[in-house]
Design a protein that fits this description.
40% helix, 93 residues, globular, single chain, mainly alpha
Length: 93
Amino acid sequence: MFRDFETSKEFASGFKNYLTASNCLNSVVEMNVSVLTIGNWPSYPKMDIIYPQVLLSSMSQFEHFYMEKHAGRKLSWQSYVGQCLVAARFKPG
């Protein structure tokens, strides 16, 4: 469990470097992914979620980054435990 936290920090840093080197930084979505080992965490029911296209693009970029380093492993998005922060700017009045 604790190793997953350290590994996730390394992935976050590596992913940001990967996006910078690839000129793929997305100014609309900032995404942080935690990669957890199955079996060390509770399981949750699968949720059918329709993600916005801009988020799907970021998810795809992370999958590509991850698979370059860990071919043969499987990623499974656990939306049930995810979070989203939405920021908006409105005109006065």
